[in-house]
Amino acid sequence: MFLKIIIDSIRFSAIYLFGSAGETITEKSGHLNLGTPGIVCIGSMGSMIGAYFYISISGGNTIPFLSVLFPLLFCVLFAGLAGALFSFFAVTLNCNQNVTGLALTTFGAGLLPFVASSLDGEVTASFATKIVKPISHLFPKTFYESNWFTQLFFSYGIFVYLGIALAIAIAIFMKKAKTGLFLRTVGENPAAADAAGINVNRYRYLATIVGSAISGIAGLFYTFDFSGSMDTSSLSGYGWLALSLVIFTMWNTELGIAGSFMFAFLYISSKYANSTPAGEQLVSIIPYGATILVLVLSSIFSRKLGKAPAGLGVSYFREDR
Asked: pLDDT for 197-242, tens place per residue?
């Protein structure tokens, strides 16, 4: 039982990991995108449309590689466009970032059920065998069920491993790459970055689009791997937890791997808990309480634990330099 909880937690953690890793890139540029829950929903919607499109053009004769590629491409495209829309309002029109993000969340969370219900009848017939199966398992069942070691490390789909690799790559990029250092400068002090010849608006646009595209993969993963169905009623809630995980891990994606697992473990454990429904609900809200605790600790020990980019949530006006 404990092994199953760990395996399910590792799988489920990919939702939080993709969502928080993408938002970390966005926030490192100085954009506070509260539209992440909506972008996760838009990513799920795009992946459904991609799956429907591929099933339609393939005539039912699907190829596993393309069964993964088409939902991924549509997911990244739709989520990236949502990030571009946020940037247009926040950068070009200088709108309030909080209001823009909340509007995007409302839009994405409201649009997803409509699209899912519209596609359900068209996709369901081929959904499980032609799309879910190639995404949810990377290795053959006979291999990963052979012993506890292979179950623990090899019983996941490609996106679980991709999420971990992305989190590590983003951390290295932010700390070692020249472009990553420029991006952090834009988030910390956009005026100084501008004076040094760094195009602040371009960096914020690109960071938000790329970050949103990565966050959107959380929606794809939930739909085609963890859930394996068109039920997306809880997806925006997971998006909010991914948003809080950015704070929990102090804007470090490598810590996001452990943080995502912890959040997922608390959530999955509540599903296996032999307690009253009220007790399960109390267990499931622990990640929210843990985030509040970290917020308090970060305000007290900010130098040791790390802190948000100084320019986070503040629009940059070049004329104010």
From this structure: 999 999 999 999 999 999 999 999 998 887 766 667 788 889 998 9
Give the length of the chain.
Answer: 321
In a domain, 122, yes or no: yes
Alpha helices in 222-248 (DSSP H): 235-248
Say which CATH number the domain at 72 has: 1.10.3470
Buried b (16+ CB within 10 A) or exposed e, 285-299: ebbeebbeebeeebe
Residue 318 lies in a domain: no
Euclidean distance between CA atoms 47 and 42, whole angstroms: 9
Nearest 5°: phi and psi at 93?
A: -95, -5
User: If you average pLDDT over residues 113-121, what whole number do you get?
Assistant: 78
Task: Give the domain extent around 251.
Answer: 2-308
> Residue 115 has which token pair?
């699209």
What's the rounded Cα separation, in Å, for the pair 180 and 186? 10
Tell me whether residue 77 is exposed, middle or buried, using C-beta atoms within 10 angstroms of its C-beta: 0 to 12, 13 to 18, 19 or more. middle
Q: Each residue of 275-303: pLDDT tens digit?
A: 555 565 666 676 667 667 766 765 565 55
Kindly give, in sequence order, each residue whose CB lies less than 8 Å from that of residue 261, ignoring residues fewer than 6 positions away. Answer: 9, 10, 13
Q: How many helices (H) and strands (E) does the chain have?
A: 16, 0
Q: Does residue 231 belong to any structural domain of this protein?
A: yes
Question: How many domains are contained in the chain?
Answer: 1
Is 41 a domain residue? yes
